[in-house]
Amino acid sequence: MTLKSHVSMTAISGLPVSGLEGKKDKLDGLNAADESSSQTPPQTGVTKPGPDQTTSLGASKCATKSCKCTEELCKQTRESASKASRGNAKRGNEESPLPPKRSGALAPTQTGNASTSDRKATQKRETLWSPEEEPLSPKGNTESPRSSTSRSFEPRNPEVDQTEVLIKQLETRLISQEQLVAEGKGIYAGLVMVESKCIEVDNAQGSTTESSPKLNNEQWQALIALHRTLLHEHHDFFLASQHPSASPALRRLASKYAMPARLWRHGIHSFLELLRHRLPASLEHMLTFIYLAYSMVALLYETVPTFEDTWIECLGDLGRYRMAIEDDDLKDREVWTSVSRHWYSKASDKAPTTGRLYHHLAILARPNALQQLFYYSKSLCVPIPFLSARESIMTLFEPHLNGSPTRLQEIDAAFVRAHAILFSGRNQEQLAPSVDEFIGSLDNHIGRTTRRWMESGYHIGVALGCSLLEYGSESNVIMRTIKSGARADEPNTAMQGVETAAPSQKFLDALDFACRTHDVVFRRFGDPSVTPYLHVTLSFLHHLVKFPAAMAHIESKIPWKLISLMLNTLIGTCTRFDKIENEAFPRNEKESPRPLPDDFAQRGLLWVEKYYPADWFTAAKIDDEEKYFEVASMMEERQNRCLWLGNRIAATGKWLTYDKNLRQFSVAPRYAIEIANLPTASDTGSDPPMQPDGRGARNGADVEMPDA
């Protein structure tokens, strides 16, 4: 490699781009001097700087001092490079406060370990690099260049760490009552104007016929924007009226003018119905608006807790709309069904006596017909019944009344068909065959399903209890007695206003259906699968004990003897006689109450009034998924509950009796009848039940006396 090429490349690699342009003349002169010196033979004493030597701004060190030409050339090179560096630094300081940086387009300095081909390529370059040429890349250079400056790490000043900078709280001004009232009036005026426009548009579009021109995307988007504006106006009004500084009068405005109901009716529901009637053309717009409304109501649920119950039900309704229009993706449909069920369950926990919520849960229970029947019946037999459920329940009953094929098991189809006939009064000739089919298959069905029948047991028990009330009919003899308030435990109200009326044929058919079911289930002594059914039945009877006029209509048909035998079977495993013989509701005072699944199923019904303690469902927070989850410890608690209910019924001595010394149940003399075909121990796989005269599993055994 010649000295000329070495000096040129090292000078270029050490200079910034701006310095090269200013020193072009001097470098041209330097190149001319190099050409004149290149005609002489190369000096053997000149060596190329190695990687361990530092080159300052491209200045080359000469190893041989005998060559004057070489020394002069090196001197000129150092002077030119030094002047160029000083001029460039001065210009860079004037233009920018930052130090000059090496341009990425310049070729790096070649080191001593470069390959021969790279050196030949370097020798051919005698001028500056231009953008048209390819950049040089050091292929053989694998060593990283050493930094010319060393880093210094100085310890931090301890005074800085000890210094704390306090930031003052921002000044805020409290809003006055006058300002809040003025703000609320302004928002309400705009809200009414937008609401009127929404009502006008929805009514106009709802009255159009199928032959009317369809709305295009721009028109749908304009309608969505209009209703979105109304939702935002409602949100602003709620924030103003429910402000922490608002007066009680201002807070009452939202309830006085029914703002939550107006938001749902005019801001959401009417437009959703308009979109639903225009399906499938409006599907995408309906999805957009559902998501918009859901997010807005969820925001109100978090920021305006005063109307939390309303927001929860609105979220459930929106989830049900979203579920109903999902036909393509079954997974999404199931997800939105779960979302809607969650909100409705949450709402029913806050308002357990409102039948409307159970009606909504019945719709979400499809295709489980037994669960649908349970929820529909419950929605009609609560203190606040949902009368529209009488129409909705027919969607469940119609296929069974018309003889259409269903996907249900035969025993479930027979049970639902019997209730359809009892409810509608149609196809009376099919009632007896349907009941016979159900009763004939019930015992074997319970034996096959075992523990899985526990959930079906309390669903069937609740449905039979509702059928005895004729599904909430005001003309029902039991319903009239209960609503009259003629309770035996309240002498001032006993038998007041009770009109003696003959029971209807529907009631007698329902009573026969229920008692025949009791006769099958209560023969399964020692079977834990039937205890939820027993619990629901005893809860119903325990409530009617307080209404002698109502009990008079059913007492002769109830299988009291079988109930006493079933209770004697359960008492054989009882360890807490102090709880079952006490008048107080049996509960563990040391732990938070854990309601049974059948407790949640009965909650809100007419016959559990004053049955549960006030804090039984509110003391512990239980997730929706865990409400109907059966755990092993619940079996003993349910048995104790059944024994306690039996004791409360036996306290009157009219139907059941209880001997505290023998600790066994019996019946009043008028119900002491012989029961044929009682199962043996081998049939049930458990000990035989205690007989009223003391015979049975405990015959000849010592009797455990209660503590004094």
TrEMBL record:
<dbReference type="GO" id="GO:0000184">
    <property type="term" value="P:nuclear-transcribed mRNA catabolic process, nonsense-mediated decay"/>
</dbReference>
<feature type="compositionally biased region" description="Polar residues">
    <location>
        <begin position="139"/>
        <end position="152"/>
    </location>
</feature>
<feature type="region of interest" description="Disordered">
    <location>
        <begin position="679"/>
        <end position="708"/>
    </location>
</feature>
<dbReference type="GO" id="GO:0005697">
    <property type="term" value="C:telomerase holoenzyme complex"/>
</dbReference>
<dbReference type="InterPro" id="IPR045153">
    <property type="entry name" value="Est1/Ebs1-like"/>
</dbReference>
<feature type="domain" description="DNA/RNA-binding">
    <location>
        <begin position="341"/>
        <end position="429"/>
    </location>
</feature>
<feature type="region of interest" description="Disordered">
    <location>
        <begin position="1"/>
        <end position="160"/>
    </location>
</feature>
<dbReference type="InterPro" id="IPR018834">
    <property type="entry name" value="DNA/RNA-bd_Est1-type"/>
</dbReference>
<dbReference type="InterPro" id="IPR011990">
    <property type="entry name" value="TPR-like_helical_dom_sf"/>
</dbReference>
<protein>
    <submittedName>
        <fullName>Telomerase-binding protein EST1A</fullName>
    </submittedName>
</protein>
<dbReference type="GO" id="GO:0042162">
    <property type="term" value="F:telomeric DNA binding"/>
</dbReference>
<feature type="compositionally biased region" description="Basic and acidic residues">
    <location>
        <begin position="68"/>
        <end position="81"/>
    </location>
</feature>
<dbReference type="Pfam" id="PF10373">
    <property type="entry name" value="EST1_DNA_bind"/>
</dbReference>
<feature type="compositionally biased region" description="Polar residues">
    <location>
        <begin position="1"/>
        <end position="11"/>
    </location>
</feature>
<feature type="compositionally biased region" description="Basic and acidic residues">
    <location>
        <begin position="117"/>
        <end position="127"/>
    </location>
</feature>
<feature type="compositionally biased region" description="Polar residues">
    <location>
        <begin position="34"/>
        <end position="58"/>
    </location>
</feature>
<dbReference type="GO" id="GO:0070034">
    <property type="term" value="F:telomerase RNA binding"/>
</dbReference>
